[in-house]
Amino acid sequence: MANPEPSELGPGLSEQVAEALRERIISGQLPGGSKLNERELSAELQVSRIPLREALPLLEAEGFIHSEARRGSFVHTFTLRDAVEVFDLRLRLEPFAAQCAALRVAGGASPEDLLASLEFARTGVPGEQASGRNSDLHEEIVRLADHDLLRRLSSLLNGRVRWLFRLTPERDTPGMWEEHAELVHAIAEGRPALAEALASAHVERGRHASLPHLSERLPSEPVPRRGRKTRSPA
Amino acid sequence: MANPEPSELGPGLSEQVAEALRERIISGQLPGGSKLNERELSAELQVSRIPLREALPLLEAEGFIHSEARRGSFVHTFTLRDAVEVFDLRLRLEPFAAQCAALRVAGGASPEDLLASLEFARTGVPGEQASGRNSDLHEEIVRLADHDLLRRLSSLLNGRVRWLFRLTPERDTPGMWEEHAELVHAIAEGRPALAEALASAHVERGRHASLPHLSERLPSEPVPRRGRKTRSPA
DNA sequence: CCGGAAACTTTTGAATACCAAATAGCGCAA
DNA sequence: TTGCGCTATTTGGTATTCAAAAGTTTCCGG
Fold first, then answer.
1. Tens of pLDDT along chain A (234 residues)?
2. Where are the strands (E) in chain A, listed by range?
3. What pTM was computed for the model?
C-alpha cells in the first residue's frame, strides 16, 4: 500500500522520514513548540509508526526536537542563544576543516570538486537559495578534508546551520563571495595556515553580520508554554 | 514478559539498549567487524526488535556501527586513524569547553561540582578505571560550560573517547593529574584564556603519550573481510 | 573435476494489530 | 469558582506477519 515504488534502494525509509521532518522544521512549516503526533505524522507521510519512531531519536540527537517520556516530541524553538552557539562551534570546526582540506591538497588530493562548487555558487542566481549554496560549499570542504569524525560532527552541526540560514534571508553580504573565493583558493593552493585563518575570519564576519538581524527576529527563550496543540492551520 | 520493573521512568528503553550495545562494543565483547543480528540481539537483551532498531541509528550516528541496506549492521573497526581523529577533535572542542566554563565561572557560576569531580578523580584508586574518571572530569567541564550545542557534539565525541581510553589502559601518565588540577583551577578561578591554553596542552600531551602505544595495538585498516559471522565465543 | 545457474534459506525492512501505563482534558461536585 | 476524579487519547512497547533482497547450497553441464 505504502509502496508505490518497489525499488526503494535509497537511504532507508526512516532516514527519508527524518529528512522530511527536518525540512518541515527548518522551513517553519512545523514551528517551534509544535507537538509531533505519531499517528498524525505517520498518516501524513504515508508510513507506519515504525520508521517514524526510528527517525525521532535521530532528530532529537540533532537537536531539532526534544522528547519527554510518555508525553511526546516537540519541535525545538530556535532562540538567539542557539544562533550564538552555532557560530561558536562553526568558529571551532570550520577552520579545522579548512586546515585539513588544505593539508590534503598539499598531500596530493585534487581540489577540483571544491573549485566546481565555488563556481556553482558564483553562477547561481544571487538571491535565490544563497543559504543552500553556502552550506554546500562548506560541506564540500569537509568532504575534501576526508576526516570521518569531523564529518559526523559537521553533519550534526549542519542541520542547525541550515536552520539558522533559513532564518536569515539577507545573508548576501557584499564581499561574502570574495571571502569564499579566498578561502577556497587557499585550500586549493595547499596552504593550511592561511586557509584556517581565512575560515576563522569568515565565520567571525558572518557572526558579526548576522547577530544584529537575528536578535530582532528570534525569541530569547522558548516561550513558557501555551494551551493547545500548537499546529499551524492548513 | 520483558517488563519485570513496571516503573521504568528512566531514559527510555531504546537508549538503554543503545548504551548496552555501546558498552559491549567498547569492552571488546563485540569486536570490530561483528555482525549485529537483530533477532539474536533482541533475544539476548530481552527486548523486541523495535527498541533495538531505534538504537541502531543512534549507534551509527556515533560511529560505533555502520549499516548497509538489507545486509545488516556491523561493528566499526577502531583503527589508528580513528584514534588520530579523536585527538584532532578533542583538540578543538575541549579548549573551547574550558574557555566557556571559565567564562561562566567568571560570570558568577559555581565550580563546586567540577572541584568535587576533581577531588573524586584524585581519591580514586590509581589504576582502577582511570579512563572513566578522566571522561567524567571532561564531562563535568562541558556541563559547567552550559552550552547546548557543545554538549551534543561532545556526547557524540565522547563515545569514541571512551572507546579509545579502553584501548589504552596505560594512560596513568605521571603528571596527568597535575594537568587536570591546573586546568580545573584555571576554570575555577574564572580565567578563560589560561583554561583554554591548558586544555590544548593537555590534549596535545595526551596525543603524544598515547599514539606510540596505539600504533602498535590498532590495525591500520578495517581488516578486508573475515569468513563467517564474527562473534566471540561465550 | 570445476564452474555456473537455479532453488532454497536466512535476514532485513516494514506493516498491522494489540496491550499497558500515563498523561491530559473534561465534567462534576463542593 | 476551584479542586477532584473519571474517561479518553497517546505514547512506549510487544508479537506476528509479509515481501524482497542477500547469501548459501545444491545440482547440472562442460
1. 433 333 345 578 999 999 999 999 999 999 999 999 999 999 999 999 999 999 999 999 999 999 999 999 999 999 999 999 999 999 999 999 999 999 999 999 999 999 999 988 887 665 556 666 778 899 999 999 999 999 999 999 999 999 999 888 666 677 888 999 999 999 999 999 999 999 999 999 999 999 999 999 888 876 655 433 443 332
2. 35-36, 65-68, 72-75
3. 0.91
Phi then psi for residue A154, to 5 deg, are: -65, -40
Question: Min CA distance, A49 vs chain B (Å)?
Answer: 10
* Distance between CA atoms of residues B170 and B167, nearest Å: 9
Q: Can you give the length of chain A in residues? A: 234
Q: Cα–Cα–Cα angle for B170, B156, B17, nearest 5°?
A: 90
- Using an 8 Å CB-CB cutoff, list chain B residues near A61: 58, 61, 152, 156
- Rounded to whole angstroms, how far apart are CA atoms A102 and A32? 39
Q: What whole-number distance in Å separates Cα of residue A157 and Cα of residue B200? A: 22
Gap from A204 CA to C6 C1', Å: 64
